[in-house]
Amino acid sequence: MPPDQCLAARKLLGWSRLEAQGRTGLAYSTLQDFELGTTAATPTTRNRLRAAFEATGVAFDADDGSGARLSEGSDHDGDEP
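RE: above sequence
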């Protein structure tokens, strides 16, 4: 998952970085630095992000940064998953 895809998924869900931090257990600075491209994410960080997003109904188009979308049948309403 590249930074753009992470940001797209977070925005799609309407999550702030603080909410993403709480849902993933990652440090705020880790999320910020990854999304801004100042540091590369470890495989563990990417896996935690992907798992949290997918658990709420986000589907990723590809790992090349092409985007994120709500999967069909997702019951996500834009607020709390």
